[in-house]
Design brief:
Length: about 220
């Protein structure tokens, strides 16, 4: 059986948090094997530019067939695969290196946006079937998560091939706070690490199995 490499990235903590659920969940899956696939976990800095550099180095090294970048979306109640990455950085707060780009492109001269090549709706369907709250998100924001998502999709669109010369697919998933984080913001929703890790396994397995996304509603009125 042909071996398949899956790259998962998670972010370091930002905005005075002690941890980031994306890295806690991703690192729990480092070395996980499902079928012919093996997961490789990498930590990325919450810094404009550096985040894409670290992603590019990991992709150069591993030449993965599938890449899922994961990030924290504090305040969201669900596991949310992102549909689209946009070519703009507009930081509401400084990143971990005090960079705060405003209205600059992620990649000058590149397209306005790229769609995820993950089967976002099939992932949502599989998660809901497993009892995990999930929805398609139509905006990854304009901070470092959208930035790395755009960098990933631009690389895939322009030059990435896997070690076997085959196609590379990828996308981004935002996840809620861990309970310990939400405890600092009364009323904020959260998801346990156990659920986040189980959900990530489902997302990876679904992305590996489903090439053509299912056609069912995942839109929003606003
Ligand atoms: N979330 C931030 C950046 C790092 C992270 O985990 C975001 O949504 O842009």
């Amino acid at each position: 059986m042909k071996s398949v490499k899956v790259l998962l990235t998670g972010f370091e903590p930002f905005e005075k948090e002690a941890l980031n659920p994306s890295w806690e969940a991703v690192r729990a899956l480092d070395g996980w094997k499902t079928g012919a696939a093996t997961v490789h976990a990498r930590l990325v800095p919450c810094v404009f530019g550096d985040a894409i550099d670290v992603l590019n180095r990991a992709m150069d090294e591993l030449q993965p067939q599938l890449v899922l970048c994961i990030g924290q979306a504090g305040g969201r109640a669900e596991f949310t695969p992102e549909r689209i990455a946009i070519n703009v950085d507009d930081a509401r707060v400084p990143d971990n290196n005090d960079r705060q780009p405003i209205d600059v492109p992620v990649v000058p001269g590149a397209p306005a946006a790229y769609f995820s090549t993950l089967p976002v709706k099939a992932i949502v369907r599989a998660l809901r079937a497993a009892g995990v709250p999930a929805s398609v998100s139509n905006s990854a924001g304009t901070f470092v998560c959208n930035h790395i998502f755009y960098g990933l999709m631009h690389r895939i669109a322009t030059h990435a091939t896997a070690a076997d010369g085959g196609e590379v697919r990828g996308g981004f998933i935002h996840i809620p706070y861990l309970p310990a984080q939400a405890a600092r913001f009364p009323g904020a929703p959260s998801m346990s690490l156990e659920t986040l890790v189980a959900a990530l396994r489902i997302a990876v397995a679904t992305a590996l199995a489903v090439r053509h996304d299912v056609a069912e509603t995942g839109g929003q009125l606003h």
